[in-house]
Amino acid sequence: MKIKKLSFKNYKAFPGIQTIELKPITVLIGKNSSGKSSIAKLFTMLENSLSGEIDVPMLLNNNEVCLGGEFRDLVYNQDPSTPIEFNIVFEDDSKMFVSIIQPISSPSPIILKWCHKNKSLDDFCFTYDEKNGKYERQGLTYDINFKGFIPNFIHSGDDIEDLSTLDNLTKNIKVDYIGPFRLVPPRGFLLSGKQEYYKMGIFGENAYNILGNNMLRDKLLVKQVGDWYEKNFDGWNLEVSNALSPFNQILLHKSENPDVKINIIDVGQGMSQALPLVVRAFMEDDNSLVVLEQPELHLHPAAHGDMAELFANSTLTKNHNYIIETHSENFILRLRKLIADDSSKLQPEDVIIYSIEHDESNEPYLLEITINNKGELSDWPDGVFTENLDEIQAINRVLKVDKKKA
Asked: Can you list the domains of the chain with their CATH numbers?
């Protein structure tokens, strides 16, 4: 099961209701500290809260992705008495609403209001009564123990409606978050013995064991990654060597000189920083939402578009879904070009862009931007990616002044 749409209120810098609809490629843009990372990291929290396996509504640290030091860090203006609200729409159009607050008397956050709706269940809601510490619905009182966002019902009176469908609804939510700073590659690495990896790791650290394990199987993943490197990184092919067994190495070579092999740690950082992202793109579909922050980091601008095309192809061939936070104009330009290109299978409905803007009151909001079949944008905020033009105009002004002085 995948998340189709998410609305949130009073989360971090966003006091008003913001809605993000997820497409195969969802792009977040905006200035530094505008809230892009807060949105990207939010999905790691939802994965755990929807698993039904945690004893509190939400975790501050989710698989090493930290949202804050305490609950107040997640709330607009750090006011824990103000509830954070989430409205989640799943791919089968079922919905879940959760409102979370931390009363002064409570050592941890509690769910203030919870609602669920699906095809067979219409607006099933519970509201917390702080006076008696119980939940109420239609005049009845319930003792409810929540596991994350998932309720366990304890009630001694009338039977309540069956919510067993919730288990099927939530247990398959998977989020794989890869942060902006990937692991500095090891010169050599040992296989951990773990055979299956479902997450790349916040630093992309599992990429090495994933490639090493693949060498013991069909070697297809290693070949796909190596071929991509050769095509997009000036002819450098990538291989996994166990010549120093039990240690494995990631080596690079060029086809015209295959005997000269260079350890990946001894080449430019862009080669190793890109590796976890390339490996993830070629992994088989596991129904995960892949969240990437600044995939273009340490790469030459010419490679930004190549990364965008890689992710686009993986959505089409591997059924991957991405949330990508980027500062790269070239990344977005390549997506526009692919949609406009008749030879590409990427369609307008496959991509959506959200730019974090500010209204007259300086409150942030999400501006939705779509791309039509000509590669044209539905909207574009003032001042975004205009830096090159601004600098050129500034140079021209300086030159005009210098000419007048001469």
From this structure: 51-172 (no CATH), 175-391 (3.40.50.300)
